[in-house]
Amino acid sequence: MSVLKNLTLDETCSFKLRSWSGTLAYQADKIENCVSYATVTAQTTSGDNANASIGGLVKIAANMADCANYGSITVKGGGNVAGLAVAAITR
Fold first, then answer.
1. Which of 11, 40, 61, 91 is the most exposed place for a label (fewest CB within 10 A)?
2. Which residues on neighbouring strands pair with residue 3, listed in sequence order?
3. 71-81 residue pLDDT tens
4. Whole-angstrom Cα distance, residue 8 to residue 38?
5. 51: alpha, beta or left, given left = phi > 0 and alpha = psi -120 to 50?
């Protein structure tokens, strides 16, 4: 089981991502007490074969509690953006 717990990304953090991603991880089973103030940018390129799908903390989460995103997320080239997770799964 993948767990992210008690993490803070402050405003000095910045991330440049590609198409399908999350700032901390692609997927996590459990996320607790994680906060981001980071600036996130993503760029979809012709080789990505799809629009971007970017999560402020993760792309896919199964269980999330006491988390927040206060940073900015920008995607150039189109796609889906979510402050915490783009998708939730049930386990």
1. 91
2. 30
3. 998 888 777 88
4. 9
5. beta
Nearest-angstrom CA–CA distance, 19 and 10: 23
Rounded Cα gap, residues 30 and 44, in angstroms: 28
Bridge partners (DSSP) listed for residue 54: 21, 81
Q: Which of 53, 56, 63, 54 is nearest to 4 (CA)?
A: 63
- Rounded Cα distance, 29 and 46, in Å: 31
How does pLDDT run across 9-44, given as a tens digit for each residue? Answer: 999 999 988 777 888 888 899 999 999 999 998 877
Q: Beta strand 35-36 with 85-88: parallel, antiparallel or unpaired?
A: unpaired
Identity at 65, one-letter amino acid code: A
Please, what's the largest Cα pairwise distance for the chain?
37
Global confidence as pTM: 0.82
